[in-house]
Design brief:
Helices cover 80% and strands 0% of the residues. The chain is built from 10 helices and no strands. Helix 3 runs parallel beside helix 7 and helix 5 packs across helix 9. The longest helix has 28 residues. The radius of gyration is 16 Å and the shape is globular. Bound molecules: (4-amino-2-methylpyrimidin-5-yl)methyl dihydrogen phosphate. The site of (4-amino-2-methylpyrimidin-5-yl)methyl dihydrogen phosphate has 10 residues, from helix 4, helix 7 and helix 10.
């Protein structure tokens, strides 16, 4: 299977994501608020770029099955962006602040990957969502009941989101593993790790 091969090539980096201080501190309830604020603003910019990426990827989806799965992901971004906007308003954060160069690079890479064609684009989408699912599922499994991050935890670790990531995996598994897919997957994993480093203290 293509997804299994991609993931088995990234075991060390995946561990670093799951054990990342930001992830661990969110679970433990010890995350500094300044780190959460930084994440919220950076990730809001990322999700809006991601929405543009997903829209472009749907336009090159090869069939109805793929289009349907991706359309579900696009629809979920409406309540997701509201989650960011509500939290930012509560915390008095300016969501129009300039993003980091890393975020600009990651966001630009998403849309650039679409130009490499469907197999690379769907692999990038799967990698982005799988990395967030696994990180937030780890928070879900280790956090106490009085967490203030419940909305965000549920957003990326709910049974619905888990099923969506599995469906993306099915779409990737229709593709043959090529060096281009391995490179795309590796780039996303490196961007994900660097993104957590960027927002952590
Ligand atoms: C996602 C995200 C998941 N929000 N931020 C990063 C840095 N990586 C992955 O994407 P989405 O669109 O929120 O499901």
């Amino acid at each position: 299977e293509t997804t299994r091969a991609l993931l088995s090539g990234q075991e060390t980096a995946w561990r670093l994501i799951l054990d990342h201080p930001f992830v661990a501190q969110t679970s433990a309830g010890t995350l500094p608020l300044s780190a959460f604020d930084r994440w919220l603003a950076e990730d809001h910019y990322f999700v809006r770029s991601f929405r543009a990426f997903l829209t472009e990827l749907i336009a090159i989806a090869p069939d109805e099955q793929a289009r349907e799965v991706l359309a579900g992901g696009l629809a979920a971004l409406v309540p997701e962006l509201e989650l960011f906007e509500t939290a930012a308003a509560e915390r008095g954060l300016d969501l129009s602040a300039e993003p980091s160069l890393l975020n600009l690079g990651y966001s630009s890479y998403l849309t650039a990957s679409v130009r490499e064609g469907w197999p690379v684009g769907i692999t990038v989408l799967y990698a982005v969502e799988k990395a967030y699912y696994d990180a937030w599922a780890s928070v879900r499994d280790t956090t106490g009941p009085d967490t203030q991050y419940a909305g965000f935890i549920a957003n990326w670790s709910s049974p619905d989101f888990s099923a969506y990531v599995d469906q993306l995996g099915v779409l990737v598994d229709r593709e043959e593993l090529t060096p281009a897919l391995t490179r795309a997957f590796d780039r996303v994993v490196r961007f994900e790790l660097a993104f957590w480093d960027l927002v952590a203290e």
